Amino acid sequence: MLKENLANVEKNIEQACKNAGRSRDEVTLIAVSKTKPVEMLQEIYDENIRDFGENKVQELCSKMEQLPSDIRWHMIGHLQRNKVKYIVGKVELIHSVDTYRLAEEINIQAKKQNVIVPILVEVNIAHEESKFGISAEDAILLVEEISKLENIRIKGLMTIAPYVENPEDNRLYFRKIKQLSVDITNKNIDNVFMEILSMGMTGDYMVAIEEGATMVRVGTGIFGERNYKQE
Ligand SMILES: *Cc1c(COP(=O)(O)O)cnc(C)c1O
C-alpha cells in the first residue's frame, strides 16, 4: 500500500514539474515520517527514498539509530535551543530556523563539532498566529543577521502554508515566498544562497512545485493519516 501511495505522489510530482516546465530533478521529495514506525520508513527506503523528515528531536535520533546510515534526515519541526546539540552534525538540513537566538545556538554547537550547518529560514507567510516562523517583512533582516554566524549556511526558505480545502488558495502564498527568495538573492548577502524553497505538503505540493518549490514535504500522502493518540 505504501508503495502505491509513493508511486501516486511521484506521478503527481512529475505532472506538476511538467505543468511548470521544470525538470523532475529540480524537486526533492521528503517523506515526512513523524509518528510512523521504523518498519514503514524501511518500506519507503526500499523504494529508493533517502530523504526523511521528522519534527521531534528525540524521535528523529531514535529512528536514525535504527535505520540505514545513508538516509538524509531533515529536521522540519520547531526546534528548542536545548535540543540543538543532539542534531547538529547529524542532519542534512534544519528547515525551521526562525529566530536569531536559535541560530546562535546552532552556531555554537556547530563550532564545537567543527562543522558547517545548512539551514533554512522558516517564514510564516500567511501571518498565522498558530504557526512558528518569521514574518516576510522581518525575514530579510533575520537572514542578514544569521549570515554573519560563521558555522551556519543559509540555503533558502521554508514555509508551512495554511490548511486549505482547495490547494489553489495557497498559490499566492507560494508565489510570495518565491518572490521573497528572489529579493534576498538580489541583496547579494555574503554566505547566503537561496537554492532551496521547502514548501508544499500532502494537500498542496503540486501547486507548490508549480510555484517553484525545490523540496516538498509529504507525510499523509505517503504514510497515511497520523494517529497521535497511539504515541
Ligand atoms: C507533518 C508535516 C508535514 C507533512 O504533512 P502532511 O500534510 O501529512 O503531508 C510537512 N511539513 C511539516 C513542517 C510538518 O510538520
UniProtKB/TrEMBL annotation:
Cofactor names: pyridoxal 5'-phosphate
InterPro entries for the chain: Ala_racemase_N, PLP-binding_barrel, PyrdxlP_homeostasis
Any one Pfam family match given in the protein's UniProt record, by short name: Ala_racemase_N
A single GO molecular function term of this UniProt record: pyridoxal phosphate binding
Keywords (A to Z) from UniProt: Pyridoxal phosphate
Modification sites for N6-(pyridoxal phosphate)lysine: K34
Domain of life of the native organism: Bacteria
Stretches assigned to coiled coil: none
PROSITE patterns: UPF0001
Residue ranges constituting the Alanine racemase N-terminal domain according to the UniProt record: 5-226
SUPFAM superfamilies assigned: PLP-binding barrel (SSF51419)
Family the UniProt entry places it in: Belongs to the pyridoxal phosphate-binding protein YggS/PROSC family.
Role description: Pyridoxal 5'-phosphate (PLP)-binding protein, which is involved in PLP homeostasis.
Descriptive protein name: Pyridoxal phosphate homeostasis protein
